[in-house]
Amino acid sequence: MTVPVLTSPDQVASTPLRVLICDEMNPGDLHHEGFEIDYEGNLPREETLRRLPEYDALITRSRTKVDRELLAAAGERLRVIGRGGVGVDNIDLEACSRRGILVLNAPESNNVSAAELAIMHLLAAARGLTRSDRKTRAGEWDRKFLGVELKDKTLGIVGLGRIGSIVADRAQGLRLKVVAFDPYVPENKFERLGVERAASLDELLTQVDFLTVHTPLTGETQGMIGTRELALLRPGSIVVNAARGGIVEEAALVEALKSGHLFGAGVDVFVEEPPTPDHPFLGAPNLGITAHLGANTFEAQERVGAEIVGRVLAALHGDVSRGAVNAPALDARTLELLGGHLDLGEKLGRILAQLLPGAHDLEVTFRGEFAADPAPIVTAALVGYLSGSTDERPNMINARALAKERGLNLAVREEQDSPDYQTEVVVKVTGGAQGEKQRTRTVGGTVFGRSPRLTRLRDYRVELAPEGFILIASNQDRPGAVAKLSNLLGTWGINIAGMALGRAQKGGQALFTLTLDDGLTPEQLQAIRDLDVIDSAFLVRV
Length: 542
Ligand SMILES: NC(=O)c1ccc[n+]([C@@H]2O[C@H](COP(=O)([O-])OP(=O)(O)OC[C@H]3O[C@@H](n4cnc5c(N)ncnc54)[C@H](O)[C@@H]3O)[C@@H](O)[C@H]2O)c1
Ligand SMILES: O=C(O)[C@H](O)COP(=O)(O)O
Description:
Shape: globular
Bound molecules: nicotinamide-adenine-dinucleotide, 3-phosphoglyceric acid
Oligomer: single chain
Number of strands: 22
Distance between the termini: 25 Å
Strand order of the largest sheet: 8-7-6-9-10-11-12
């Protein structure tokens, strides 16, 4: 795979490349040959916008919103944006990609500090720190308050990534039992960390005394802890959010504190930062607040500065192997030859991520003759399999490294013969706890012209355009099943865009796959599962 060379060596030698750091960090040594780095700390936004056209790269933290306005102000010169930290939700990645701007982050540098802050919030809430501090300052010597011990209690972690894992380790040091919910992480990571795996979020919530969230803010995690979820927690629980504002719904959290259902809470992050003076958090009882300080330690900012400056300078020299968040980068010729297959690989990966997340093995089989080295199709399948579960936005540059970090083993097989199609790509994932029965899921596809087609789902042959929503239903092969299902979809006004039937043998288990123009509500999916002619049904989004 070829990555874009952002700057030719001649250019580097003749004109210094200019980098603007507009947010506060410890940028370390600013003298690097061939570069001019301006560190401005908290540069006012209008100044950033005014000066940006003179720079090749911009380095920010979460304070600076990299939106369309900023990109428009930047003009043509800006080619790299470095985020000194993990979360890139302040950056419009789509707009950056469209303008050909590479976005990098520094996800390794501040995770210890963020994890320690989460533990601090847990302890502070358990012992009523903010309440006692406020009262004592106001002249009230209140020694009646009774806190709770952490020892022998259970901590629930949502998101067992870099920070969640460190929190688990520190919590075990405090003699807490740790249970986590993270469907995207393989079993061996739970085993290595000595953390019990919860099969679902609800299962986690009902068995913990304390809850802390450490996921990125995605469509799936936004509001994932709301009124219903908080009610599932035991009375007297404590909730911590040092990840992103809105993962725990703000109004629901305030309500649960006011009603006394929660003993306390700690937050480091808000939906809108800084919060307005009338924000309901500010009057909520036993709620410890910090001003998005998770990464604010001397140590973290020293590491963040060195890491992001190093990555940005390397990228300006054409090395985008570390920290790339956006921009799949293949040369035009490979894209031309493999384009449809890359799209296919990503779609197969995305389908498998929904059928069997958290796998430990992913195997890709290539059948037939491909117009170019098919290796990038493996990367595309990884992009699809890993997307939606990490802040790092898997792409063609970082997907293999992310897979390695997650303990996802890769295998590739090539078969010369492709009996049914000119080429076929089959992707199989395997997951499950060590010593337990392993589950596998297989999907396959081919390309007609430049359009991907599904050719195989589990052990069944299908032929379907993988688009929109795919309903996968299995039943005993007998008359009437399709009619009952399509009638039901018809009563909900849901249009069937395509359909494929497959069966292992006459009268045996059959699988039908329908592509739908719209999704289904959980109730509609349940109604399908309840049909007497259906054994199981899943909906995947491609
Ligand atoms: N407060 C701060 O200053 C501060 C500092 C650093 C990071 N952060 C935030 O902390 C969060 C975690 O960072 P990280 O570096 O550990 O990220 P990470 O990508 O290493 O880990 C995130 C984990 O969340 C899991 N996940 C994703 N979607 C999920 C879902 N729907 N349900 C359960 N688990 C899910 C992923 O599988 C992954 O293991 C991010 O939101 C980041 O922005 C905050
Ligand atoms: O995502 C992150 O890295 C943290 O939220 C830290 O953000 P900050 O660099 O703006 O403190």
